[in-house]
Amino acid sequence: MAEVARRAAVTAAAPYRHYDGLADLLAATGIACYAEFTMRLDAAERGAGDDPTEAICATIRAYFSYAAQHPAATKLMFDGRLVQSSPEFAALIASDYQRIANLAAMAIGRSPDEPRTRTLALNISALVMGHMKLHVDGLSPVSSPNEAPELAVAGVRELLASARATPRR
């Protein structure tokens, strides 16, 4: 907290007037960052029109755009410790997952509550988060910053196509 206060040019005691500790400060910061992040996802989804596949792809591009512009915020928001320490932040992450589940369900013509749809949504989330984490951490093997989101989009399109082609049981 002393470093936070120093960088904010306030006394070491000032942050404690507003937050109980570093975890509370990080949670508040993560929640504020997530609000902007969610606005971008909402705009991307709306801009895609009525096609749920295009809405998923647009939100993926919005994920990467936000991550490129705000890498530190992205690392904070997707740090599991934040989800574990803040029920409010955990609810935001759950809402984001539900967005993906709903769009995936519409894209393949199934209910978001079906086990196969939930598995698909989890696979989409893992693919996108994996690509984004590699990208933000500078570990991605792709050379172009525009290539990473498009590889994630291509992977998601393949997952959706496979799910559409798989007959119901």
Map the helices and strands.
Layout: H1 2-8, H2 22-47, H3 52-69, H4 71-77, H5 80-85, H6 87-108, H7 115-136, H8 147-165
Helix pairs in contact: 2-3, 2-4, 2-6, 3-4, 3-6, 3-7, 3-8, 6-7, 7-8
Give a quick set of tags describing it:
mainly alpha, elongated, Tetracycline Repressor, domain 2, 8 helices, single chain, 169 residues
What does this structure look like?
The protein has helices at 2-8, 22-47, 52-69, 71-77, 80-85, 87-108, 115-136, 147-165. The protein is an all-alpha fold and 169 residues long. It has a single domain (33-165), classed as Orthogonal Bundle (Tetracycline Repressor, domain 2). Helix 2 crosses helix 4, helix 6 (87-108) crosses helix 7 and helix 7 (115-136) packs antiparallel against helix 8. It is elongated. The mean pLDDT is 89.
